[in-house]
Amino acid sequence: MKRLSRPRRSLWLVLGLVIGGLVTAATVAVAGLQPADLNFTPHSESQMTNIDVGRAWAKNYYGAHTATSGPNGTWDTPLNLESNYANEARSVAEQSDHWLAARSRVPHRAIVLDVDDTTLTTWNYELYSNWDFNPTTNAQFVGLTGNTWTGNMFPPTPGMLDLVSHANALNYAIFWITGRGDAQHAATIANLVDDTAAGLPNIDTVTLNGKTIPEVDAGYVMPTPIDIGHGGFADGLFTKPPIGSYPTYLDKPEFCGPYIHTGRSCPTIQYKSGTRAYIESQGYDIVADLGDQFSDLEGGFANKTFKMPNPNYYLP
Ligand SMILES: [Mg+2]
After folding, report:
1. Measured in angstroms, how far is the CA atom of residue 295 from the centroid of ligand 1?
2. For residue 32, what pLDDT band results from cuts at 50, 70 and 90?
3. Quick check: 232 pLDDT over 60?
4. Ligand 1 centre and the CA of 38: distance in Å?
5. Residue 296 CA, ligand 1 centroid: distance in Å
6. pLDDT higher for 167 or 27?
7. CA–centroid distance, residue 133 to ligand 1 (Å)
8. CATH classification of 50-307, choosing from 2.70.70.10, 3.40.50.2300, 3.30.2320.30, 3.40.50.1000?
9. Average of pLDDT values for 259-275?
10. Ligand 1 centroid – CA 19 distance (Å)
11. Which residues lie closer than 8 Å to 273 by C-beta, 6 or more apart?
12. Residue 175 φ/ψ, nearest 5 degrees
């Protein structure tokens, strides 16, 4: 028996090493998602993707093979929930759901979510704008025509409603941190939750450039109440303050201090990590931070980060 048990044991050891190696390889593959080097200069055309080809591939990825872009294009077609994008977004949501469910006894547990292309998907605006962000037309999709409330146009990101409602059921505090400005605070609550929750009149349809689509109330839970320290907001959606109105908790050398003292806008990594540090200073433990940009995820103050898919734009 002893002689038999040794080979068996070593067989298990070998199997364990093989499985361990595979797990390590998978981890490396995930960790292999890295921020882009924007200073990279291709030596050859073959080192980059042709822009028109990239747009065609994006359409295919979003299950919109025949889509056309521009204000007269097919931006009014509903987000395809069977696309490879939708499947990948749901996959990340499920991975984070497992992570949260396994930590549902962490004291003062919280999650942090980004808005655009993490909990609301802006694919329709990529088509409308032909991948050329314009603050005025983007604001119309956010829900504001000038300063007038005209209704939300971004659908929830596939998989994320289930994730957030499950986290809420597990008594996680739910916070959103977005680069959207304070001026879009109410419109953002209206899109994430519903119009009346934001204190805005209910709107049922939105008409833009002659096309009418259903107005979106995504149906997320309200963010957990917390004083965000500027703008008088206390609902756990951290919109970005205007220059000159940054809260004192961001005025630290490692966060926004150098920008506050020189009258500049605080970059995303410093702004978002400084805000997460503030949330943790209020007694919360951020168990997971979800975002579509690396700048949503870098800078610490989260036990684990989850990268949502977004091939459309890059925000350092
Ligand atoms: Mg985003």
Report:
1. 9
2. low
3. yes
4. 18
5. 7
6. 167
7. 13
8. 3.40.50.1000
9. 98
10. 35
11. 255, 298, 299, 300, 301
12. -120, 145
